[in-house]
């Protein structure tokens, strides 16, 4: 709405309205990524919730893509802004206020930049933003946040198998959950939240923990209504130990699904370049399984996997990957703590494959994914910059082009 059109509204509609950026407390997993990302110090938290400072937020949108759950992508049209204390007190977002008209002057400042003013209804705005956050063009449309903390889905554990060698220091589990009646539709690359039972020492509910889905959309081993997770037991960690100790038959509450951009292209001609360490392999197992199912449709796209772990014994799915034919996935497995061999990280392997990679990165059919521990991205980026420089290419230009086309994705935790 332009200022002229606003002026022409009937008096009853002329409530000066602003658009306020808010965080959904039912979806937020309290990971702090947004607070770390915001260049303006626009996000704060207490023991309960994360909140956006209305007077500080410029609507730059920089916190949106890094948020792993989409909890941050909410805008409400308000006649007066919700305070931080109000946001801290919420168990869920308040309902959108109906019948408000946007004051174009305020909207221009407060609407995040991906959405052009004049503004649209907030729900449409959120939708528009999710599209602009650039999933692969051929990806299926995901369902997100269908189950929130106050109304989670219930699943039953149907398998819990140790993936790493018993003698290894690392305990990583392949855990399969079954939902009733197909209630939890997922796409490869999405994740879900696990609701820890009980409360902390102060009587507060535990934060939901997020886990990548390691199975394809059709379910684990073709079983409908199931998802697989790849869970590493973290020493002293609350949720990972709870999950790793769950017996078959146990019941568990689940939120999500999360993730609208780290998705697999459906295009069978797409080349998928995957770089990961440890449990970061989880979404890529889902990608590989999906591509195996699509093989009947003669996928011409290549799958390439660069995957690092400390030792072969500590690498989840090592034998599964080694048994796959190269026609399914070209994999480069490397180890950083071999007792009697070189200590190799994925960056080293990326540099060693410079010729193949520089050609692939110039191909508009190539989609690039990184998943694993925080901090991994930088080493991978530096290696790719070197690979490109050797071939006379500009990595930053290539990366930005891929990112805006929905072909560059990073998920680290
Ligand atoms: C997008 C995304 C995807 C993810 N995917 C996966 C996945 O596929 N697989 C996977 O295994 N994980 C995944 N994670 C990580 C996962 O969500 C959890 O963070 C992880 O399992 C640890 O949770 P926890 O409850 O076990 O540990 P927490 O209880 O949260 O503890 C975390 C750390 O703090 C330490 N700590 C806890 N309490 C104390 C204390 N009182 N004093 C000192 N130190 C303490 C713990 O020792 C541990 O090192 C993902 C995270 C994100 C954001
Ligand atoms: S889930 Fe999103 S909104 Fe919540 S703390 Fe993490 S980044 Fe912020
Ligand atoms: S939109 Fe920009 S200013 Fe506002 S909270 Fe997000 S990163 Fe901070």
TrEMBL record:
Its cofactor is FAD. It is an enzyme of class 1 (oxidoreductase). Keywords: FAD, Flavoprotein, Iron, Iron-sulfur, Metal-binding, NADP, Oxidoreductase. It catalyses: benzoyl-CoA + NADPH + O2 + H(+) = 2,3-epoxy-2,3-dihydrobenzoyl-CoA + NADP(+) + H2O. The keyword Isomerase does not apply. PROSITE patterns: 4FE4S_FER_1 (PS00198), 4FE4S_FER_2 (PS51379), FAD_FR (PS51384). Its EC number is 1.14.13.208. It holds the Pfam family FAD_binding_6. Residues 19-48, 50-78 form the 4Fe-4S ferredoxin-type domain. Residues 150-264 form the FAD-binding FR-type domain. GO terms for molecular function: oxidoreductase activity. The keyword Plastid does not apply. Homodimer. This is Benzoyl-CoA oxygenase component A. The gene is boxA.
């Amino acid at each position: 709405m332009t200022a002229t059109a606003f002026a022409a509204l009937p008096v009853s509609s002329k409530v000066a309205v602003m658009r306020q950026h808010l965080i959904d407390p039912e979806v937020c997993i309290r990971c702090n990524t947004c607070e770390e990302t915001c260049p303006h110090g626009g996000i704060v938290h207490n023991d309960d919730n994360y909140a956006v400072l209305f007077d500080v937020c410029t609507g730059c949108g920089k916190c949106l893509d890094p948020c792993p759950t989409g909890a941050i992508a909410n805008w409400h049209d308000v006649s007066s802004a919700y305070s931080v204390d109000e946001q801290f007190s919420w168990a869920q977002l308040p309902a959108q206020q109906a019948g408000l008209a946007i004051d174009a002057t305020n909207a221009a400042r407060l609407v995040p930049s991906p959405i052009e003013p004049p503004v649209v209804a907030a729900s449409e705005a959120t939708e528009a933003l999710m599209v602009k956050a650039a999933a692969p063009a051929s990806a299926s449309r995901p369902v997100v946040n269908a189950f929130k903390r106050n109304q989670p889905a219930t699943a039953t554990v149907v398998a819990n198998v140790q993936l790493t060698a018993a003698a290894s220091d690392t305990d990583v589990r392949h855990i399969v959950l079954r939902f009733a009646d197909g209630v939890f539709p997922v796409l490869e690359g999405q994740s879900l939240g696990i609701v820890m039972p009980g409360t902390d020492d102060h009587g507060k509910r535990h934060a939901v923990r997020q886990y990548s889905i390691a199975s394809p959309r059709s379910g684990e081993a073709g079983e409908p209504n199931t998802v697989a997770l790849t869970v590493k037991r973290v020493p002293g960690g609350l949720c990972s130990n709870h999950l790793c100790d769950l017996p078959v038959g146990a019941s568990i509450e689940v939120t999500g699904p999360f993730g609208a951009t780290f998705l697999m292209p459906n295009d069978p001609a797409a080349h998928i370049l995957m770089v990961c360490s440890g449990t970061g392999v989880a979404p890529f197992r889902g990608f590989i399984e999906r591509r195996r199912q699509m093989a009947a449709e003669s996928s011409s796209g290549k799958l390439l996997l660069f995957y690092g772990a400390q030792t072969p014994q500590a690498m989840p799915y090592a034998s599964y990957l080694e048994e796959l034919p190269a026609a399914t996935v070209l994999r480069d497995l490397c180890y950083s703590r071999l007792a009697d061999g070189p200590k190799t990280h994925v960056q080293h392997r990326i540099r060693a494959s410079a010729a193949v990679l520089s050609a692939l990165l110039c191909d508009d059919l190539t989609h690039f994914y990184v998943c694993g521990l925080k901090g991994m991205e930088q080493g991978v980026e530096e290696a790719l910059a070197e690979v490109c420089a050797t071939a006379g290419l500009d990595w930053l230009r290539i990366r930005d082009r891929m990112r805006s086309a929905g072909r560059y994705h990073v998920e680290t935790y």
